[in-house]
Amino acid sequence: MAKEEIKEPCKKQACDIQACLTKNNFNSQRCQRVIELLESCCEKCEYKSTHCASVSGLLKQIKKNTKEQKPQV
């Protein structure tokens, strides 16, 4: 394992999210899987990576968008 991976264990997942968001016009719902991978990484490293700060905001945004898209009964 490279030294950088030890210092910043979730850097790859954070970069993957940025790439996905850029590719998908910043539609976080289309990047849900990579966001969940970052969340998993953050859980494993006990949120000790600087890249973990944004994961909760991204997950909240996905949940909010999902609720807005459900048809009213």
From TrEMBL:
It comes from the Eukaryota. Pfam families: CMC4. SUPFAM superfamilies: Cysteine alpha-hairpin motif. InterPro entries: CMC4, Cys_alpha_HP_mot_SF. It is found in: Mitochondrion. One of its GO terms (cellular component) is mitochondrion. Disulfide bonds join C10-C41, C20-C31, C42-C52. The keyword Disulfide bond applies. Keywords: Disulfide bond, Mitochondrion. Belongs to the CMC4 family. This is Cx9C motif-containing protein 4. It comes from Papaver somniferum.
